[in-house]
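User: structure tokens for Nipped-B protein, please.
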Amino acid sequence: MVKAFKEENLKEMGDVSSGIASTVIQLYLKEIMQSYLHHNLQVRQPALRVIQLVLQQGLVHPVQIVPYLICMSTDCEKLVSHSADKQLLDIEKKYPGFIHTKSSFGIRLSYQLQKILQGDGIVRGFRVKEQGEYPSALNGYLYSILRSSRQQRRALILNILKQFDEQARTTLSYMLYLADNMAYLPYQVQDEPLFTRSPHRYHDLSFRNKPASGLIMADGQNKILDSENGETINAVSALDEDDDDEELLASRVPEDASQLQACITAAQGCLLLLMLKQHIKRRLRAQRWFKQLMLQLDPEDADERRERPQGAYGTGNCQH
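Assistant: Done. Predicted tokens:
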């Protein structure tokens, strides 16, 4: 028996054991990660702990875990979100670019989590740490990781803006969540918010198929039926009639109002983008005003201040 023990190779034994653990965890990993999307913290914490152990032991490739870590980084529980932030940072250092490839899926998962945590109310994409403090985007830490790469941060912004495209069929609730995040992302240099609010971004994306919101309104009017013969009425003639008559308008709504609802949602998406653009514009103006004020107060330090970054438009970490 002693001879048999001597012939055992400890490295091979470890490799076999590791292989078995990797096989087992791959069978259950998807269900474990899905279980994290739960309102009870006592369910979310064990799921996070298992994922931490899996990453530490290298049992699976981290790329499939990244979307759920992005989701976890928006958790309202500090211990959970900070742990997920650390894991994301470690992965980005070890595997540059992996987080960027899974960012869109991660943001969608974070929206699903917030729907659970925020209850039946309107799902918002920002958080205020204390009353009077400036809000921070729930996905702000994800952006702060990608911010160092101009290509990656711009790709992230463009992927978000594409969700406002009419053809994407994005729900109004999700578009509001995305708009909230973009409004309070931790921008640090002027190039970042300026890229977000560039006019051609909105023209190419949201208004690509509908160059103006008036066309969306006309499309919606064409879905309204004539109250007498059930045929569609001309949009121009509809404008000439009394649009304040609620009963008349209600009688013209078709039984299948799905197409009309799609037009209304598309129009609201356009309005969200316009409001986002104005919000970022006001932030830029406020930032420029503050810089000018500081230069006036300390003119000797003017040259040094011009060389500094524009200043964060929020904090890099998610606030809780």
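User: Anything notable?

Assistant: Residues 95 and 217 are 47 Å apart (CA to CA).
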